[in-house]
Design brief:
Shape of chain B: globular
Structural class of chain A: mainly alpha
Radius of gyration of chain B: 19 Å
Shape of chain A: globular
Order of helices and strands of chain B: EEEHEEHEHHHHEHEHEEHH
Order of helices and strands of chain A: HHHHEEHHHHHHHH
Strand order of the largest sheet of chain A: 1-2
Structural class of chain B: alpha/beta
Number of helices of chain B: 10
Oligomer: heterotrimer
Low-confidence stretches of chain A: none
Helix content of chain A: over 70%
Chains: A mainly alpha, B alpha/beta, C mainly alpha
Largest sheet of chain A: 2 strands, antiparallel
Number of strands of chain A: 2
Mean pLDDT of chain A: 86
């Protein structure tokens, strides 16, 4: 594995993660709670796309689009049914509720589709191989889609009335409500955007690897970590956090700590020390702990006065 | 008893305390007044350790207060109330009062099992004191009510009650009469004076009610924009031009 | 499984989960610590006890003590840097910590005791049941049930005494997240939180140890975050901040969870699917409980004077 390959892997992973962490951060910002069902919504989108693509035979691109949008709408319904009644409840109660929701969603999916790994029907990937790296067309698409989505979000946030309202609500929720910016309407749009993006992110992961019912759980810690690292409530922070985390994960496995201890020959230390691949999830956990202990507001977060 | 020397505190770009210096004599009631945003609550928070000061020194009973956690400062004998009531809602009035004494033997987990009799004795003594205080603050009938169900004024009384239970040397009262009904304010005034006269306590209070200030304060310190602009007896302060100006002009400039 | 055997099995599960529930109730119901990683203590207790008994060839009681100690220490160590974090950060941290524990046991496949025990993703089998030789196969479960019930009683007594003491009173004062008042009263809030995690942790470890020695086989996929959520369902449904409620919650959820076993004779659905549907039901139950029954079956007892 070369340095360049690690960089490419990181960028691909970051593109996927960013879509998920972006969604998490905007919901967190406007509703003030950590949605533990976030990644499970994404998995709903993944399996919906699978259904459209494999069972109904739809081409992958319309399947992806339709599934993401449908899941976005689904999240609005869930919000109406469950979270709307909890607008003023304490954080822990809503968190536990989202936990229950996550369990219900995940196991409904595994009840319907079973626990076996599945795949979308996409063209066989022929990687582009060079001396330093290999990359598949799909991976290139993932990076492009990720970038496009983030660009679209940026346009939305800064060049639309909705975006302006979202930013206002984020900065000062009481003032926004008082000045007539209909907060419930914004909440609806935020859910839709967040979960559509999250589904897209999940689908891209599913395309690149496998589709499994527990994939939502597999990424929940990295997604939360990226979100928190970037600063909760800051969409650009979420993208940055995804980038930082992906690089940390991939380089964490790539770096030979033995060589570092060796200090380039100064110390007589010749063992190779790598982080075992089985511990990859531990990297995001360690990063999360470090961020929370050193700079809880994240890289781009605002300082909260007591 | 308490001395602040050149204390500075900023939040981001906003300077809350701009080199504040004042002192509080033992066994006295000192008022701390000023327009909104002048730095009164910030001073309280800095003294009690909830904010850390940027610069300056604070001395309590001659000893410098280091930058330590609020609970440690409380243990040295400084007690305070909060402007916005912080009482735990799902605990009853009695439970709140029982919480207040410091260094309770029963607060050590092992002690609960190794020394149950000692703890029972300690708790019985505390209960006796609780009943006395309930009479004083007139909350006896509400003693088993959840603190969350009390009115704003009643919560203020409860805060005063916990101060009495914890028996501090220096007492910081943050707007003790706000929201309290006028007849009760009279009783509060008596209780506060009593703390000074019969218990020998030192009291620093933030108040907006000038009548209360005139009636009970030995000395008044006036802050404006984070600086001390005047100091003296209540009568002197009410005649002070700078003070009048601060209150008149301040209210149009601030939020 | 014969009916009597099944009922004994069910009772043992209720006892073990009752201990887990009491432990989580102490952390969340009384101290406001939203521990989404409760399964970590369960896992540590199970594995450490197994290792003590199999690798070091020690009697069951040492396995029990070892499991409880390690789990308690883990709770203590995790709490020290993180105890004052906001509740949602704390939740994700504990969730992640529990995963690390599980991943650790998944990756480290120590050959235990040099025998047929494997470890890692294969799990560890052949865990001896204490005093098995003294009983017949038919009567042993009753003996084990007695052990579990004794442990449950001890756990209940200890935790109840703690929550009713001045120590417990301090916990209630900062449980909603308002640290200011307790601090102003001279209470070292962080120290209390750390102690609660150590105590809660050791009882979680106790449950894990009882589980391991009953089942005879442990593996990492028995300790997924799902277990934590089941315990949460128990605490919430039974009634938070009420110790009897915690046990009641364990009973109710366990009945619910196991009742569907019988349904498979009547519903033409595969066992695997049914297992998933059971979990769906639990998830929905949590959501419904949070919406309509936040206080659970048994409300918190008001302390009267």
């Amino acid at each position: 594995m070369t340095f360049t390959q690690v960089v490419i892997n990181s960028i691909v992973r970051a593109s996927e993660l960013a879509l998920l962490s972006l969604g998490l951060t905007i919901v967190y910002d406007i509703l003030r709670f950590a949605n533990f069902a976030h990644t499970e919504f994404a998995v709903v989108g993944v399996y919906l796309a699978l259904f459209l693509n494999i069972t109904l035979g739809l081409h992958i691109i319309p399947a992806v689009i339709f599934a993401s949008v449908a899941t976005g709408i689904f999240s609005i319904l869930v919000d109406r049914a469950v979270f709307k009644k909890m607008r003023n409840t304490s954080g822990i109660i809503i968190m536990v509720t989202s936990l229950g929701l996550a369990i219900a969603l995940r196991h409904t999916i595994s009840a319907i589709w079973g626990a076996d790994a599945q795949n979308y029907s996409i063209a066989l990937q022929r990687p582009i191989v060079t001396e330093y790296f290999r990359i598949t067309p799909l991976q290139i698409w993932i990076i492009l889609v990720g970038l496009a989505a983030m660009f679209v979000f940026h346009l939305l946030l800064h060049h639309t009335k909705l975006g302006k309202a979202m930013r206002a609500s984020s900065d000062n929720p009481e003032l926004a409500q008082a000045s007539g910016i209909a907060t419930e309407k914004i909440i609806t749009y935020v859910w839709f955007i967040a979960i559509t993006f999250a589904s897209l992110g999940g689908i891209l992961i599913g395309m690149e690897t496998y589709i499994l019912p527990y994939m939502g759980f597999a990424i929940i810690v990295p997604v939360f970590c990226a979100t928190i690292m970037g600063g909760i409530g800051n969409p650009y922070g979420a993208m940055l956090g995804a980038l930082v985390l992906s690089f940390a994960e991939n380089f964490g496995l790539y770096i030979n700590f033995g060589k570092i201890i060796n200090l380039g020959g100064v110390l007589d230390f010749s063992k190779d020390i790598f982080v075992p691949t089985g511990y990859k999830p531990a990297i995001s956990f360690v990063m999360l702990i470090l961020v929370l202990l050193i700079r809880p507001r994240g890289i781009l977060g605002r300082k909260k006065e007591s | 008893m308490l001395r602040l020397e050149n204390v500075h505190k900023s939040f981001g770009g906003i300077v809350a305390l701009h080199g504040v210096s004042f002192h509080v004599e033992p066994r006295s009631i000192t008022g701390l007044i000023g327009p909104n945003g002048s730095g009164k609550s910030t001073s309280f928070n800095v003294i009690s350790g909830f904010y850390s000061k940027d610069r300056g020194e604070i001395y309590f009973q001659g000893k410098k207060i280091e930058d330590i956690e609020p609970y440690k400062i409380a243990m040295t004998g400084i007690g305070r109330t909060f402007q916005i009531s912080e009482v735990p809602e799902k605990m009853t009035v009695v439970e709140n009062l029982l919480l207040a004494p410091k260094n309770q033997f029963g607060e050590g987990v092992l002690n609960v099992f190794l020394h149950p009799l000692k703890i029972k004795k300690e708790q019985d003594e505390h209960i006796k004191k609780v009943y006395e205080i309930l009479e004083l603050i007139q909350l006896y009938d509400l003693r088993n009510e959840y603190a969350g169900n009390l009115s704003g004024g009643q919560k203020k009384l409860l805060s005063l009650g916990t101060i009495l239970m914890s028996d501090p040397t220096l007492i910081l009262l943050d707007e003790p009469t706000a929201g309290v009904n006028p007849t009760l304010i009279k009783d509060l005034i008596v209780a506060i004076k009593n703390l000074r006269d019969e218990k020998g306590k030192t009291i620093l209070l933030v108040e907006h009610n000038m009548k209360v200030i005139s009636e009970i304060c030995d000395k008044v310190i006036v802050l404006d924009y984070g600086k001390k602009i005047a100091e003296g007896t209540p009568e002197e302060i009410q005649r002070n031009e700078k003070v009048l100006e601060a209150y008149l002009s301040g209210s149009s400039k601030r939020e | 499984m014969g009916l009597i055997n099944f009922l004994v099995y069910l009772a043992i599960m209720m006892g073990i989960y009752g201990i887990l529930s009491l432990s989580l109730n102490l952390q969340y119901g009384f101290a406001g610590l939203a521990n989404f990683g409760q399964v970590a203590f369960f896992c540590l207790g199970a594995y450490v006890s197994t290792i003590v008994v199999l690798t070091f060839d020690m009697p069951f009681i040492f396995g029990l003590l070892g499991g409880m100690t390690v789990a308690g220490v883990f709770g203590y160590v995790i709490a020290i840097p993180t105890a004052d974090l906001k509740e949602d950060y704390w939740a994700i941290v504990t969730l992640a910590a529990a995963e690390i524990v599980r991943i650790f046991f998944l990756n480290e496949d120590w050959v235990v005791g040099g025998g047929p025990y494997v470890g890692g993703s294969f799990g560890i089998g052949g865990i001896p049941q204490p005093l098995r030789a003294l009983f017949s196969a038919h009567t042993y479960p009753f003996f084990y049930l007695t052990i579990v019930l004794v442990c449950l009683l001890i756990t209940y007594t200890i935790i109840n005494k703690i929550t009713q003491s001045p120590f417990g009173r301090v916990l209630k004062s900062f449980r909603e997240g308002g640290d200011n008042l307790p601090q102003a009263m001279g209470k070292n809030v962080k120290k209390f939180r750390v102690k609660v995690m150590a105590i809660g942790g050791s009882f979680g470890g106790l449950a894990g140890c009882l589980w391991a020695h009953f089942h005879g086989f442990i593996s990492p996929d028995q300790f997924m975050p799902l277990e934590t959520f089941i315990v949460w369902a128990m605490v919430i449904v039974g009634g938070k901040a009420n110790n009897k409620g915690a046990i009641l919650g364990a009973v109710v959820i366990m009945i619910f969870y196991n009742s569907t076993r019988f349904l498979k004779d009547y519903i033409p659905v595969e066992a695997v699917t049914l297992a998933s549907l059971r979990m769906v039901a639990i998830g929905i139950l949590i959501v419904v409980a949070m919406l309509f029954m936040k206080e659970g079956f048994i409300k918190e007892k008001k302390v009267l004077y």
